[in-house]
């Protein structure tokens, strides 16, 4: 063990140790001689799915307004950053200090109206436009010449679709109003119906993807977050179906002992119940 092991052990045991304590715990978990075999085996690639999952769980806690749960989920998400930073440090690529320096420098550079000489007297739209200009300059420094370069492949598909469309819109590749998007939506819907009747499964999937892409565009034009909207719809479906199950249970039945007509009637009852609440 290194000479600082007693101090490290004391830090790990200190409930008030804060971020240094967490960093030391992760270092210890990854120690090749004394760490956890599972943690030692992990790589950037194997941890990435957990990072995405934890971000979604943060969003879920916020959507449910479960603040004690949010506290824990934010800790889980922070652990992901600490885990990646430890792997980076071991590979000589970066460490937690350089990660925090990078994001701090970025925030300073992207907010000249707060930390620099620029005036704060500008609209939110103007601040957004300035933000995009700064990010465009950053992409240019990274030799990302294409308009769509740098939109992360790992984003949820709907979110990535909106980001791609926003990038294209900045150079004028966009419909001027929602009406044209709705027209395109009808066109893609018709093509999907035709594909269902005459094309292969792969072609049906392609047409369905086109329809979803237009739906993402419609959300952007209507200033709706499609991921948030779909999460809300999922929550509503879950909530209403739970009411169906509860009413069926009162009648001594389960859903598989019911039929579509009965459950549809109960669905409408649940819908009316929510609207009258």
TrEMBL record:
Q: Which reaction does it catalyse?
A: ATP + H2O = AMP + diphosphate + H(+)
GO MF entry, a single one: ATP diphosphatase activity
UniProt cross-references to NCBIfam families, sorted A to Z: mazG, PRK09562.1
Q: Which terms are listed as keywords in the entry?
A: Hydrolase
What is the name listed in the Swiss-Prot or TrEMBL entry for this protein? Answer: Nucleoside triphosphate pyrophosphohydrolase
Top EC class per UniProt?
A: hydrolase
Which GO biological process entries does UniProt record here?
A: dATP catabolic process; dGTP catabolic process; dTTP catabolic process; dUTP catabolic process; response to stress; TTP catabolic process; UTP catabolic process
- UniProt EC number: 3.6.1.8
Gene3D superfamilies recorded = MazG-like
* Signal peptide stretch: none
CDD domains documented for this protein: NTP-PPase_MazG_Cterm, NTP-PPase_MazG_Nterm
Kindly give the SUPFAM superfamilies that the UniProt entry links to this protein: all-alpha NTP pyrophosphatases
Task: Cite the Pfam families for this sequence.
Answer: MazG (PF03819)
**All residue ranges annotated as the NTP pyrophosphohydrolase MazG-like domain in the record:** 42-115, 180-240
State the similarity comment: Belongs to the nucleoside triphosphate pyrophosphohydrolase family.
InterPro entries xrefs: MazG-like_dom, NTP-PPase_MazG-like_C, NTP-PPase_MazG-like_N, NTP_PyrPHydrolase_MazG
Upper classification of the source organism reads: Bacteria, Pseudomonadati, Pseudomonadota, Alphaproteobacteria, Rhodobacterales
